[in-house]
């Protein structure tokens, strides 16, 4: 059995056990090897849904389909009740739940729910400033003028809504936001700010900053990972070569800084000693993003060999050093992810998005099953 197949089989087995354990709740992050469970009210809840859909596509076992459909019903309720959806992470939530169901089953109700989600994401668009506001209400003194790099992974919902409806407003907003992210979040040396502030009245740029990184001018590794994958997806939808170039350059920055075991620390600028936390989820996102990026490069692209080597190193590093393969009672797939190290919020354990991207990368390599960021 190949190394990838063994890792997938292990993850599928764990998911089977977790369905029983979690019931109607959603896993989020952990501190002590047990996922914290919540109702469907956090930004992370789509990842559990996505894991269930990937397990279903990989195995064909209806137990995963039933569990995944149940999560979509929960996302329907969440939309109806407008429960904790006043932020930009609608793309993460609904791409991996209802959009996945649409892609796999061509379920019309799931498609309609996903379009509603896209409309809801559009309410985060700030006309005066010309950006999608990440967090908080309009006019919020802290966050009213703030964008974050993670949003690059929410844009596919808008591009997809344009494809489905022909309404250009979705694509136009996504493109303006992607251009702004490229210009202000990605720095001249291909590193990235986690967040950037604008004047909400005029759209004038103010400064870069961070929320979860080490410091304002540092490069939070997960932010860099969101950029690698997010710009590759913007390229998929628009074919704008600048997005492909940006994804490539951000990937090179990431891969040139891999530590000995090929799994990154939580920030590229944090002083490293034997206690410094890793973020295995950043390496998992980058691995999945590299597969997407490579799918757009020609066979003789000068960067192909370097990126392919980086993909192999990242995924092997995760499977060999961080995966819970051979620990049948473990809930998560990947140890040593970090949510918010400086905030001491789940600084070193399982992260449900790390598990999702790890499995997405593995099943795409092993069986050609893609994630749910665009139509197949
Ligand atoms: N998108 C939030 C995070 O990566 O922690």
TrEMBL record:
This protein's UniProt keywords: Glycosidase, Hydrolase
Signal sequence extent: none
E.C. number(s) listed in UniProt: 3.2.1.179
Top EC class for this record: hydrolase
InterPro entries: 6-hairpin_glycosidase_sf, 6hp_glycosidase-like_sf, Glyco_hydro_88, UG_Glycosaminoglycan_Hydrolase
Highest taxon of the lineage: Bacteria
Gene Ontology molecular function: hydrolase activity, acting on glycosyl bonds
Coiled-coil blocks: none
Family classification: Belongs to the glycosyl hydrolase 88 family.
Protein name: Unsaturated glucuronyl hydrolase
The species this protein was found in: Paenibacillus konkukensis
Origin organism lineage: Bacteria, Bacillati, Bacillota, Bacilli, Bacillales
């Amino acid at each position: 059995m190949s190394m990838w197949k063994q890792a997938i089989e292990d993850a599928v087995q764990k998911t089977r056990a977790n369905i029983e354990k979690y019931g109607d709740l959603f896993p989020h992050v952990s501190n002590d090897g047990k996922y914290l469970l919540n109702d469907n009210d956090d930004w992370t809840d789509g990842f559990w849904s996505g894991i269930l859909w990937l397990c279903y596509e990989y195995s064909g076992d209806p137990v995963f389909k039933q569990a995944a459909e149940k999560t979509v019903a929960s996302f329907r309720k969440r939309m109806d009740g407008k429960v904790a959806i006043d932020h930009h992470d609608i793309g993460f939530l609904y791409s991996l739940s209802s959009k996945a169901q649409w892609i796999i089953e061509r379920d019309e109700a799931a498609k309609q729910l996903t379009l509603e989600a896209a409309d809801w994401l559009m309410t985060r668009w700030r006309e005066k400033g010309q950006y999608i506001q990440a967090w908080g209400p309009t006019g919020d003194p802290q966050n009213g003028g703030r964008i974050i790099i993670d949003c690059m992974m929410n844009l596919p919902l808008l591009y997809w809504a344009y494809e489905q409806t022909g309404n250009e407003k979705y694509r136009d907003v996504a493109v303006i936001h992607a251009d702004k992210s490229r210009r202000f979040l990605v720095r001249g040396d291909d590193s990235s700010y986690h967040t950037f502030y604008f004047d909400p009245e005029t759209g004038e740029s103010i400064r870069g900053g961070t929320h979860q990184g080490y410091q304002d001018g540092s490069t939070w590794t997960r932010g860099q990972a969101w950029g690698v994958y997010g710009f590759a997806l913007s390229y998929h939808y628009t074919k704008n070569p600048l997005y492909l170039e940006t994804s490539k350059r951000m990937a090179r920055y990431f891969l040139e800084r891999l530590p000995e075991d090929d799994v990154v620390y939580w920030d590229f600028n944090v002083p490293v000693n034997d206690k410094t936390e890793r973020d295995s989820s950043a390496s998992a996102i980058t691995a999945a993003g590299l597969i997407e990026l490579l799918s757009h490069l020609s066979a003789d692209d000068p960067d192909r060999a370097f990126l392919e080597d980086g993909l192999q190193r990242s995924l092997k590093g995760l499977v060999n050093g961080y995966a819970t393969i051979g620990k049948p009672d473990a809930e998560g797939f990947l140890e040593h992810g970090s949510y918010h190290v400086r905030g001491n919020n789940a600084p070193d354990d399982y992260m449900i998005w790390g598990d999702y991207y790890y499995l997405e990368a593995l099943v795409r390599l092993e069986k050609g099953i893609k994630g749910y960021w665009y139509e197949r």
